[in-house]
Amino acid sequence: MTEALNLIIEDIESGMKKAILHLEVELTKIRAGKANPGMLEGIAVDYYGNPTPIQQVANVSVLDARTISIQPWEKKMLAAIEKAIMQANIGITPQNDGTQIRLFMPPLTEERRKEMVKKAAAEGEQTKVAIRNIRREGIEQVKKLQKDGLSEDVVKDAEKDIQEITDKYTGLVEKHLAVKEKEIMTV
Fold first, then answer.
1. Which CATH class is domain 2-29+109-185?
2. Rounded to two decimals, what is the model's pTM?
3. Which H or E run includes 110?
4. From 176's CA, which of 68, 96, 100, 170 has a CA 20 to 30 Å away?
């Protein structure tokens, strides 16, 4: 029975790690006034009829703290990349000079910074909900094992372990949010 219990706890930890990784990806998409190629993650370009990530059709680099350069490997991709960025609605207008596209990060206003902090907090809350759902499912699985003959003491210990893991990952969410908020609010 304890092997089944260990598997449940491993699944819980694995699920919570995935939730944290997802949060990290989502937080990189929230720009803090600094140029970051991660902002273009998930933007697909129409490449000969196939939606393809920008990073697979162009060289994406950071020129300075406020500028991203996108240099396509094929010149005819300029218009498609520009269109994809506009449709992605990331709040930046691409500048096409005929050989490359530049994205200039506008300086953030105080109001816009607060909006971004709220957006980051919403992402954090979604991650916490996911973590709590993983905890709930894990506890339900442990209770099923109890019905199959696992002792009550072992079940209580397992629930305590699950809660400790949950607290650990909830704390990680808080740390990520604190770092992102500081990054956004730093002028």
1. mainly alpha
2. 0.70
3. helix 110-147
4. 68
**Where do the domains of the chain lie?**
2-29+109-185, 37-104
**Dihedral sign from CA coordinates of 14, 16, 19, 23:** negative
Read off the pLDDT band of 161 (50, 70, 90): very high
Burial pattern 168-181, b for ≥16 Cβ within 10 A else e, equals ebbebbeebbeebb
pLDDT (tens digit per residue) in 103-142: 888 777 888 888 889 989 999 999 999 999 999 999 999 9
Predicted confidence (pLDDT) per residue in 67-93, tens digit: 889 999 888 888 888 888 888 877 788
Task: Say yes or no: domain 37-104 is CATH 3.30.1360.40.
Answer: yes
- Measure the CA–CA gap between 121 and 115, rounded to whole angstroms: 10
What single letter denotes the amino acid at residue 15?
A: G
Are residues 86 and 58 in contact, defined by beta-carbon separation less than 8 angstroms?
no
Residue 127 CB partners (closer than 8 Å, separation 6+): 19, 20, 22, 23, 173
